Amino acid sequence: MKYNPNEIEAKWQKKWAENKTFAAENNSDKPKYYVLDMFPYPSGAGLHVGHPLGYIASDVYSRFKRHQGFNVLHPMGYDSFGLPAEQYAIQTGQRPEDTTRVNIDGGVDKEGNQIAGYRTQLDKIGFSFDWDREVRTSNPDYYKHTQWIFIQLFNSWYNKTTDKAEDISTLIALFEKDGNANVNAVSDDNIAAFSAAEWNAFAKDEQEKILLQYRLTYLAETEVNWCPGLGTVLANDEIVNGVSERGGFPVVRKKMTQWSMRISAYAERLLQGLDTIDWSESIKESQRNWIGKSVGAMVDFRLQNSESSISVFTTRPDTIFGVTFMTLAPEHELVAQITTAEQKAAVEAYIEKTAKRSERERMADVKTISGVFTGAYAEHPFTKEAIPVWIGDYVLAGYGTGAVMAVPCGDERDYAFANFFKGQNGMQDIKNIFDKDISEAAFGAKEGFQLVDSDFLNGLGYKEATKKVIEELENIGQGKGKINYRLRDAVFSRQRYWGEPFPVYYVNGLPQMIDAQHLPIILPEVEKYLPTEDGLPPLGNAAVWAWDSVNNKVVDTNLVDNTTIFPLELNTMPGWAGSSWYWMRYMDAANENEFASAEALKYWESVDLYIGGSEHATGHLLYSRFWNKFLKDKGFAPTEEPFKKLINQGMILGTSAFVYRVLGTMGIPPVFVSSTIYKNNNLDFVHSELKRIHKEYNVEEWSEQLTIGFSPIHADVSMVNSSDELDVEKFKGWREDFANAIFLMEENGKYIVGREVEKMSKSKYNVVTPDNICAEYGADTLRLYEMFLGPLEQAKPWNTAGISGVFGFLKKLWRLYFDDNGLIVTNDEPTKDNLKSLHKTIKKVAEDIEGFSFNTSVSQFMICVNELSTQNCHSRAILEPLAIVISPYAPHIAEELWSLLGNEGSIATVAFPVFEAAHLVESEKEYPVSFNGKMRFTIKLPLDLTKEQIEEIVMKDERTQKQLDGRTPNKVIIVPGKIINLVG
């Protein structure tokens, strides 16, 4: 009876689906355990073998927890909104909803491409997902709740006194009673004070404008990353080296009216919460840096010849007497106002140049020094000296106040800036306020100095001076102590089509929320997904996109009368909207009325284990923590943090194949040299061959004096065998321009490709699909192999050649249970060695799964099966529990073995075998017996023998007698359980 993985796996996948084997219960007597994967974006390219790595790991853990008696929630869904689908729609003329559906469910797209579909691919790998809870963020029945959460954010403000979000009605009540003078809220800066009487006298529109300055989601003119090539705003983490991650288009800084989320209100809670969760220190540190807490002071520098002032946040108020110049971000709102006529041209040119650099690029570039003098001067708060005001792109408008007081003697970047512009108009000599030499570098330490030339701070150190200067700033009304955060409010608008529509319409230019009972507001049909001719987002093309406030429905756009029918919001929500709460929807995915019931939320509480990529450290993970905290404030989420434990899986790398094209040829087809010729740079051979080829093609201009070179080109790995030999004919048929290519082979007549390990990607043609592996070797082989490759959190290269070894192991496992004639399992009593092999494996696998050391479990399986094969073990008492132990890793073969052993039902919920330490206690020891330190033979003896008994047995052994040859040893050294050594 042979092992047939394809037949076995299809059978059990069908049974699991029919019997809903992995359905979780929302109320159960069992303890709950929630395992979550970062859900995928469903691209048309489908899964490659790198994608399932984290899913397999989470599945192993989920299955193990079921064996331990837990009610396990292990769901899956799709993050199906986003820019890639929209770009594909623009390129191919297809609807994003159609391509997204085909990419998930499979089928043929408009281009005639056969798409396997994510769902089919995932099912083939045998995951224990509860598919009844599947979510798709682009489905209206999902995003109606995303829209609802947006409305809750709009209708909330952050009360710093209670340290939580509260309903906007409580803020209005405060305004009506006392005005805003004593309101302790997170809000926009510089809100004008008003009394209760003034508030009550304001027109409704004026009140709405004020409330927008307090709401947790609000409209504001914001500096954004604008990508003209994509026609949308991008988040910082969607930009790489100043261009869009998707498509590589240039990105510029631009002011736009955008929806923003006041995530900054939660900065301290986001920071403190990191101490309560089990995440890697590297991820926590990334978030701490992104939040960027700083303790210092706000200082106001009044501008000369102006009623305005520059507010600066500084962490070193003690250095205020060392201020040599000031620097504003190029985007600072005061720049245009204060720049003199003489400096206007230079300043405007610099601003235009800076707009082409992303914030991330500006932050990372510490070498480039650039800036322009505005011609304006500020006044020192204490000395009243004139301080020149510059602009420089190392200052960011969104961090702090977008302005710095530059103290070159105490800051390396200010020091470099001052020295670079030394002697130019507006740059003063560096002032030194430390009792230290700064001729070569700035002194940036916070200890080990006394202040000099610092007026009332002379002789003080950092702590004393900081306290004193803040007191004096408060006395003169030009500053105060403050805690600042680098974390900025998150832009929440995208100028694209394929995203959640906002439940917002506009009356007199002010946003109004659509009542929750009328959700979802569904994406309208549009003819094209590009911005309109006058630059509006794609929804500006919609023929039916206006809100009838009387009949509460979406109507034709041309019916807008701004009386009862109003324009709807044209932007859509960003990609992170739907992923900021999806784990809660899994708790109660079929609920039509609520995003999840209070009962379901209370039962599941939060995610116990979350597995996903570290690339989401400061994007998704930060936003989702923010939304979770907000929903807790509002009484919906039961816990402060959404994810108790986070594991980041490493990347599976592809082994790319390269062919080497010869450069410098003329009038002939492409010529490729094999890997050895390329690596040895065998130019004489190549010159000779090129001369011959040119002659064959009657191209006489070829000269050996012409310079030739080689260009490595990715080749599809499917055309290369395990010996790195290229199928030349397949390669010629792969691309039209290579149809007549000429190949200079190795001496054996083969074309050998070059190899390089790099990121697995469709663009590098090094993708290996799990479908092919499953078809040839089975899903259990794929699962075991991916876990065997190395530690889960490390990157590791894929090598298909290693698959056969794991497949061989499964066949060897099968042969413990079956021979050619059928089942060979007996009811024989297991031997001590049998029990030792089994319990060693039970212990190791349980510890490995709990410690996420999956690769060493696979090694232990192989050791165990080898030992049991050597022991000729076919005992049911050993093989039945062994099937359970291996079940989390190779569930299909485990189910089949369990069934054929005569058991009813699925193995999935059978209790995990209990480790019994007694079976690992050694009763015997194989001693090395040495003569004068040289080991001559071994002897197996009971461990409970005394030294005298061991000596008696050893001395009587005929091998000892032969070694001694009639002599009597001078000394017999015996350490029970360790050594026996006869000396002399």
UniProtKB/TrEMBL annotation:
Keywords: Aminoacyl-tRNA synthetase, ATP-binding, Cytoplasm, Ligase, Nucleotide-binding, Protein biosynthesis. GO terms for molecular function: aminoacyl-tRNA deacylase activity; ATP binding; leucine-tRNA ligase activity. Gene3D superfamilies: HUPs, Isoleucyl-tRNA Synthetase, Domain 1. The keyword Ligase applies. Belongs to the class-I aminoacyl-tRNA synthetase family. ATP binds at K762. The keyword Protein biosynthesis applies. Transmembrane segments: none annotated. Residues 288-474 form the Leucyl-tRNA synthetase editing domain. It is found in: Cytoplasm. One of its GO terms (cellular component) is cytosol. It is an enzyme of class 6 (ligase). Residues 835-947 form the Methionyl/Valyl/Leucyl/Isoleucyl-tRNA synthetase anticodon-binding domain. This is Leucine--tRNA ligase. Its EC number is 6.1.1.4. One of its GO terms (biological process) is leucyl-tRNA aminoacylation. HAMAP family: Leu_tRNA_synth_B. Its main location: cytoplasm. It catalyses: tRNA(Leu) + L-leucine + ATP = L-leucyl-tRNA(Leu) + AMP + diphosphate. InterPro entries: aa-tRNA-synth_I_CS, aa-tRNA-synth_Ia, Leu-tRNA-ligase, Leu_tRNA-synth_edit, M/V/L/I-tRNA-synth_anticd-bd, Rossmann-like_a/b/a_fold, tRNAsynth_Ia_anticodon-bd, Val/Leu/Ile-tRNA-synth_edit. It comes from Flavobacterium glycines.
